[in-house]
Amino acid sequence: MEPISVTELSQQLKRAIEAPFSNVAVTGELGNYRGQHHSGHVYCNLKDSGAQIRLIIWRGTFERLRFELKDGLEVTIVGKLDVYARRGEYSLVATSVEPRGIGGLQLAFQQMYDRLEAEGLFGDDHKVALPAYPQRIAIITSPTGAAVHDIVTTARRRNRLVELLVYPVKVQGEGASESIARAIRRVNALNDRLGIDVIIVGRGGGSLEDLWAFNEEPVARAIFDSEIPIVSAVGHEVDTTIADLVADLRAPTPTAAAEMVVPELVGMIELAQEYRLRLGRGLRHTSEIWKERLQTLQSRLLAQGPLNQLRREQQRLDYLLEGLQGRMKHRLASSRDHANALGQQLNALSPLAVLQRGYSITKDEQGRVVKRASEVSPGTTLRTKLADGELTSRVV
Q1: Which tens digit of pLDDT belongs to each residue from 243-293?
Q2: Is the predicted pLDDT of residue 90 greater than 90, yes or no?
Q3: How far is residue 142's CA from residue 195's CA, in Å, rounded to a whole number?
Q4: 3-state helix vs strand vs coil in the chain, percent to 5
Q5: Which of 1, 133, 257, 294 could join 251 via S-S bond, C-beta 3.0 to 4.6 A?
Q6: Is pLDDT of 185 > 80?
């Protein structure tokens, strides 16, 4: 037998081993895991009760993982055997890593949930109540998705006086979580100028992968840090994301979010009228009570008889009358201020108030409101209602 060199033997072993095991799936438990090497790659062991093999996870593969690796985690590795002939070593090089018994995204969700729950991000103590009558709402979502259409349509149907600000973001794929988080922080930073009362963050339904941006840590922390109340409206009712758990309020759908946030204008007007009726009844009732007390005091005074008693009662009566007048003035002033406040709220919600701020309403010859230039053609006669008077114009 002709002897061969160590190098030749190693090369033959490399060819003999690598070809049959160029695509293999192996299950085992991670061991000796120390995180990423300074190169970005991961070097650890894959083992079971009878053996272990060196495992290499290249940087690109590792950075695609959604879940965290740790010692003792049972995984399935798909990859190939690689022989390092110089040292006579062989390793399993991973092309994909999946946890056993649960999908990678489910495990990543559970790991994120456990970590953020331990930090208190889901606690009710940081959640704030939504304003009952918001005047301006920011909608952070895709500008082309069904969610923004559902929210805007529902909000305008319920109350056209509420102003909507749509902040377009990427809601799916690489960079989506950063886009959403950046928008939340941007709206908060500019809120002295914007005057936003509530933020709705969300998107339409999809798979767990489609909704994943709302399960990532940047979005969760941006929602937690927001000084503006946030409503999460992600997917359908059966979908639950990390964003839902951190937000001040979770809406089952984007449409439901608009219904929960935007009060109906008709209901607001009816409520104001009810308050006005209650105020009037209260004032009349109070006046009648003091009138009866005054009549009672006068009757007692007349029944006493002696002049001194009459004088004392007269002084007491004057004192009571003075106090009555002061309290009645205070109560009437308070009631008038409350009524004026209600009137101002109604006036602020009135379409005429919008016109006073410089807006106008333009209608065509059939009386339909013109929203886009494409709805009219040259020669069309238009009527424009201003805060004071109307204008008639013709499209050229």
Answers
A1: 999 999 999 999 999 999 998 887 666 666 777 778 878 888 788 888 888
A2: no
A3: 22
A4: 45, 20, 30
A5: 257
A6: yes
Q: Measuring CA to CA, which residue among 362, 341, 356 is closest to residue 387?
A: 356
Count Cβ atoms within 10 A of the Cβ of residue 238 and give its class: 0-12 exposed, 13-18 middle, 19 or more buried: exposed
What DSSP letter does each residue of 185-233 carry, written as one string?
HHHHHTHHHH--SEEEEEE----TTTTGGGGSHHHHHHHHH-SS-EEEE
Matching residue, tokens 């985690």: 73
pLDDT for residue 76 is more than 80? yes
Structure tokens at 273: 């009228």
Reported as half-sphere exposure (CB side, CA atoms, 13 A), residue 159 has a value of 24
Q: Token pair 């070097």 is at which residue?
A: 43
What the block records as the tokens of 254 is 């984007």
For residue 381, what are the CA distances in angstroms to 295, 315, 365, 366, 377? 69, 76, 6, 10, 9
Q: Is 118 exposed, middle or buried (0-12, 13-18, 19+ CB in 10 A)?
A: exposed
Q: pLDDT tens digits, residue range 200-215?
A: 999 988 888 888 899 9
User: Which of 181-214 are b and which e, b meaning 16 or more Cβ less than 10 Å from the residue's Cβ?
Assistant: bbbbebbbeebeebebbbbbbbbbbbeeebbbbb
Average pLDDT, the chain: 85
Q: What tokens appear for 385 in the block?
A: 């209602």
